[in-house]
Amino acid sequence: MTRQIRLNAFDMNCVGHIQHGLWTHPRDRSSQYTDLAYWTSLARTLERGLFDGLFLADVVGIYDVFGGGPDAALRHAVQVPVNDPLLLVPAMAVVTEHLGFGVTCNTTYEPPYLFARRMSTLDHLTRGRIGWNIVTGYLDSAARAMGLAGQAAHDDRYAAAEEYMDLLYNLWEHSWEDGAVVRDRARGVFTDPARVHAIRHTGRYAMEGIHLCEPSPQRTPVLFQAGASDRGRAFAARHAECVFVNGTSKPIVAALVADLRARAAAAGRKILVFVGATVVTGRTDAEARALFEDYRAHASAEAGLVHFSASTGIDFAAFGLDEPIRHYKTEANQSNVEAITTRADTAWTKRRLLDSMVLGSRQPPIMGSAEQVADELMAWVEQADVDGFNLSRTVMPECVETFVDLVVPLLQERGVYKSGYLSGTLRDKLFGHPRLLPPHPAAPAKRIQ
Asked: How does residue 61 score in pLDDT terms, banded at 50, 70 and 90?
């Protein structure tokens, strides 16, 4: 059977997401992010293109590493202003039937008891189409905004997240038994109290209480994770169902994917791996290249450097253009630091970083006719062993509409993309079952007493 390509749109409830500066393009509509009609229109287009989901990034805090303050991020709209991603989901769900929604929420700053209720509520309202991208944060500005002196060490954040996950699993999977909700009008009994259990937990998240929601279609949302550091990959192997990776070359991504799959296999599980990609396409190669040059004229490499400074915890404003970038121990995104230092074949400089940000980020675009784009996507699946793509936006909404109109039909003709949705929840569509199954730690775990 031909391997089927999975597709998520990759977006954020803000103006500037990954490809920075493109909000200045005269046809771009991303500044309408505060308008629900903008998002419902996007959801309809993605469902028309049979996308598996809309993956919504989020960040708590502001990018204030570059130049030692927030001015550059504010000036260039580098993921600020940014609104809550969860509040978009019900509006998009009501205008679609199948599209999934992966929302990013931070274990460091979200109280687990209330977070469990919000996710169960979304799973109910979407009829089982919600996923959660698990992040632990990487910005000192977020820690200060939450009343802390600074963020915890990188690996310590993951250790806390392990406990956080175990508590959530107990709330979602074990507080309410199957059949607890009886809805018996004759007896006047809605819930059988004998089948509902308080979760008792001691530790940094000490609590005692019953999960506030009746079981949702999936109970636990589909679990996404994007940490590429060694500690992040260990966390993904235990918890994640879908892993989001980035990389500038197929061999680098292939090695990362092989490591992730081996770790998951050692835990007795399989995972889906999505790689980040940016596409600029047209009916012909010449049309695509003209569009690329048009976009490039509006991109901001400086804004991309503001973003990358925050991701690495390194103030690139302090470097000369041709000064080699050395490895620094920071508590930010370790995989991004390693990508330009310890894992780099040649030394990176500020000039090289700026030159690499052709559309305002370090993600090199896949560019060409729809046929060439389809060829390249299939090559990534074949050579890097990825299952699909998280497609970041360029100029909205035309980049999504063009991909759906030109590339999707070609992938379908080649037999590598679905012609219709499967029924059921997001987990049904991705894995063929609505609930987490053993050996995932949520499935066999006993309630914490």
From this structure: very high
> Is the distance from CB of 404 to CB of 289 less than 8 angstroms?
no
83 contacts 34 by C-beta, under 8 angstroms: yes
**DSSP per position, 209-277:** E--SSPPPSSSSPEEEE---SHHHHHHHHHH-SEEEE--SSHHHHHHHHHHHHHHHHHTT---EEEEEE
Work out the average pLDDT over 263-288: 97
Dig out the tokens for 161 from the structure.
């997240």
- pLDDT per position as a tens digit, 190-234: 999 999 999 999 999 999 999 999 999 999 999 999 978 899 999
| Angle (CA) 21 26 32, round 5° | 75
What DSSP state is assigned to residue 433?
A: -
Closest CA to 65 of 360, 336, 334, 318: 318
Strand partners, 102: 55, 131
Beta pairing partners, 56? 11, 103
Strand, helix or coil at 26? coil
Domain ranges of the chain: 6-175+211-431, 177-201
For residue 337, pLDDT over 80 is answered with no
**Whole-angstrom distance, CA of residue 148 vs CA of residue 182:** 45
Give domain 6-175+211-431's CATH superfamily: Luciferase-like domain (3.20.20.30)
Q: Residue 343 has which token pair?
A: 């894992």
Task: Kindly list the distances between the CA atom of residue 202 and the CA atoms of 38, 205, 233, 306, 449, in Å, as whole numbers in the listed order.
Answer: 44, 7, 27, 40, 9
Burial code (b: 16+ CB inside 10 Å, e: under 16) for 19-58 equals bbbbbbbeebbbeebeeeebbbbbbebbbebbbbbbbbbb
- The single-letter code of the amino acid at 151 is Q
Integer angstrom CA distances of residue 298 from 25, 31, 38, 183, 305: 6, 15, 22, 58, 15
389-439 residue pLDDT tens: 999 999 999 999 999 999 999 999 999 999 999 999 999 999 999 999 999
Alpha helix segments (H runs only) across 108-240:
112-125, 140-145, 154-174, 230-239
- Contacts of residue 55, Cβ cutoff 8 Å, sequence gap at least 6: 8, 9, 10, 11, 102, 133, 224, 244, 274, 390
The helix/strand/coil state of 282 is strand
| Length of the chain counted residue by residue | 449
Residue 152 pLDDT > 60, yes or no?
yes
